[in-house]
Fold Phage major capsid protein.
Amino acid sequence: MSTSIAQAFVKQFEREVHEAYQRMGSKLRNTVRSKNNVQGASTVFQKVGKGAASTKSRHGAVPVMNLDHTPVECALYDFYAGDWVDRLDELKTNIDERQIIANAGAYALGRKTDELLIAELNKSVNYAGSATDGLTKAKILAAFEMMGEADVPDDGQRFAVVGWKQWSQLLGIEEFASSDYVGSDELPWRGTQAKRWLGTLWLPHSGLTLSGNVRLCHWYHKTAVGHAAGADVKTDITWHGDRAAHFVNNMMSQGAALIDTTGVVTLRCLES
């Protein structure tokens, strides 16, 4: 195999892993604040408090709001996902096998990204309803009231992530599943990945924490959680003659932080 063919293999593999991560990796990364190309082992997100307006006298100085700026540190961690690609597979140019390995690496890194974000969401102590029942309409409306009372912006950037059991329970709520309430364009039956309701994008997720028989679901605003990336998904491919194979190492440096606890409401849902 010529050197140019090996280089083409490496470049194509890097592109496929990156595209697979963007397409199938993390479900939650785009639902939170994001900071890329971070230099160092950590970064800081700024939590900005509420301002207050007041009057001023004629020709007097404009009053200062004195906004409270609270820095929230977000540590970055390095993660790896690798596998072997046999030289004979390369010679056969088995596209399907290469794509399977690329997708597997991207999936693994995507799951890790979501794990970081879910771990931060789990720090919320704003509980709506009790943990003795599933995801009910009453529990959802209680969470809706909590977000309103906390002045969480209703600006189209609210997200709710629930387990698949809770997604099934949502389908049993007429206001969620009926076109009489949401219109034909917003029906959840058109797809199972997302659905907008109550000004919120609802997402089913298989990786939410199950504490005993209680699933921790979360309703949050995009600005309440931060995700930082020091190095996005990278791929390193090295040749090992003793194995007659390339070792494909996918890696990234990322972290997450809960910025504003008032922007997250947790719905504890019993799974029996």
Notes: The helical segments are 3-24, 87-91, 95-121, 137-149, 164-171, 174-177, 179-182. The longest helix spans residues 95-121.
